[in-house]
Known about the structure:
- The chain is an alpha+beta fold.
- A hairpin with a 3-residue loop joins strand 8 (306-308) and strand 9.
- Helix 2 packs across helix 6, helix 9 packs antiparallel against helix 10 (227-240) and helix 18 packs across helix 19.
Amino acid sequence: MKKIKKILLILLALLGIIFLAAFIFIQTLKPDYEGEKQLLNLSDEVSVYYDTYGIPHIYAENEEDAIRTLGYVHAQDRLWQMELLRRVASGGLSEVFGSKLLSTDKFFLSLGIDEASARTIEQRKPADRTIQLTEAYLDGINQFIKNGPTPVEFYLTGIEKQPFGLRDVYNSIGYMAFSFAMAQKTDPLLTEIKNKLGPEYLKDLEIDVDINTEWIKKYKARVTDSSELRIIAILSKALENLPIPQLEGSNSWVIAPVKTKSGKVILANDPHIGFAQPSVWYEAHVSTPGYEKYGYHMAGIPFPVLGHDRNLAYGVTMFENDDVDFYYEETHPTDPKKYKTKEGWENYEIVSNLIKIKDSADVTFSYKKTYHGSVMDSISNKISGDKPISISWIYTKLENRVLDALYGISHAKNIAEFQKTLPDIHAPGLNIMYGDKQGNVAWWAAAKLYQMPDSAQTKLIMDGSSGVYEPLRFLDFSENPSAVNPPWNYVYSANNQPDSIAGMQYPGYYLPENRAKRIVQLLEEKDDWDKNSMMEMITDGISSVNPEIITNLAKLVNVKNLSEEDINLLDKLSSWDGDSPLNSVEATIFHRWIYFFLKNTFEDELGPDLFQQFLTTHFHKRLIAPMAQKKISVWWDNTRTEETKESKKDIVLTSFVMALKSLKEEYGERSSQWTWDKVHTLEHGHPIGQVEMFRSFFNVGPFPVHGTREVINNMFFPYTADGQNKVSSGPSTRRIVDFSDIENSMSILPTGQSGNPFSPHYKDQAQMFINGEFRKMMMNKEEIKTTSKSLLIIRPQLNN
Length: 800
């Protein structure tokens, strides 16, 4: 008995030692938010005050020291995120996650982002101020890599930390630019529909500009298997396993002094990005004697994409312009090394890369290029065909000065300096939103736009051999749409269609007018806006379009075919105000009905696979309201029933019955149980959280969440057969910058400031975000010092 007790005591002691060792190890993995550290290449001491939510307030005597420190503190909270982001464009994801990411690596390598980054660096001068500060930021990151703790994800994936360089910065910017592009999801699909079904099937898909939509108004003022199926398969496979979020859409509006209670400008911005953990933005307040900015940074990029100071504020939304074109190439009939151009036969350029794969042999990947760009067919070894398709993307074709633009807008002192740097943004296309303490409000569409021949349909794959469908000219930035201090006293953008550009309707992948209509409706009806009413507006979940859709559909339903209970549900839905709180039954029925309406309208012609691809495009969002209103369409007839020709009434009734039937099967006969909180949930997924055993540790959520698709509080979810409306993208932050009280401007992040799961700031804002709450973006130094949770002193380290 004594021997057993002794063994038990030994086992308990060993367990205690193991737990103690694990505890000590975990403590070493946490970010250091207090104490003292030394960094090489600092000229003076830097103070970093961390506020209640882990946001660093960096005070330095010069900007180089501040940016170097920013690189260090950014890395200690987000190094894993930086690592993934830089690997996308350079084809490095397979080295982390294995062969399932091989097609993704091939796709991004073939886009040419990494090549373009290398060319850009060759052209840069080290003496450029932009480059000097970027190198300081990279130095801070690399000193953390050398001396700081290794994030747990590196241990779990078995990859080694490697220094960052300029190429990584440009590759990260390149991924941002790609995320904004929608053509790669849309053009091959539309071409396949045209070739498979005929041009009449494109007519109702709302792919062109809409003359009846809610426009972003301009105002000029002075300042104060087939080849198509192959490409669709390539793109779908490449993007399905991408472990970082894509940028989707956004809202922003800026209100002029005459419409605010205080007589000062107020800016609101909530960029819509795929939800993930960690979240996209890293907040940092940097203050030096010559520079101050409260900024929102992307991983591995030194200058903020969103920001404000005491003089001005800016935000962004996606412009959604078409900056990607696809071309059919013609290979020489006897020499496969050549392709046809207007001037004659040219040699394909061959680009080769080595892709490292975790737990497997390296792969040599080669792809062909034409003067248009990469030939997408070569991404898959299994694909061959007589019509190679190349992709022409403006981002990789022109000089890249996006980093200079980010430096310029973050360092501008006034509206003139701010506007001067915007032509440096060639891609991605952005709506730049601006307001300042002088009372100026402005919107500029920033992108390198180009004019195509009238005969070119850029939403379809074009002939690349004739030279007929090439850009005619690039537009000067002065021709881009903009509105500076318009007489209606506000500017806004919601990814909706802009007014005419250089006398033409510019092609794009604009989102439906739903959010735009609601924003304009709310802004027009008030002239006493303040910070609190803006916070209420930015969390608004009412759709003015969805009730109109119900009206157009409900009038076609023959109630003789419904039970009394179903008729009551239809009546209830017909009086719905378009809001989507957690207890809403109407929102659940509406979206289930719309899913079946789309499925029964389009899937018979497209087939299951193309229908799923169709649901990933922006144009499917644009056509819901028009199709609900349209009386005649070639799509109404179900091609699977040869003896019967269905009408819109048949589709609408069948879809409504199927929606109710599916809800009864899943949640019971009592419709009071079909509440929105049961189907509309948000989980912030971490790449390693995809492994079930790690899910609860790395992922944040799931949470039932109010809001819905295409409302201001845009909680987008894809329509799926299982009816589970799992939110995939939405506000990546909600910012309210009020120039009447700049030090009390408000913000929120979806989860938390840190990407380190052992940090107390990994998910400390998650419930606040779900609740629609805000916190201060602190700028007052005395308040920051007296309320800070911790102080980290960074001292110069002498070179050994």
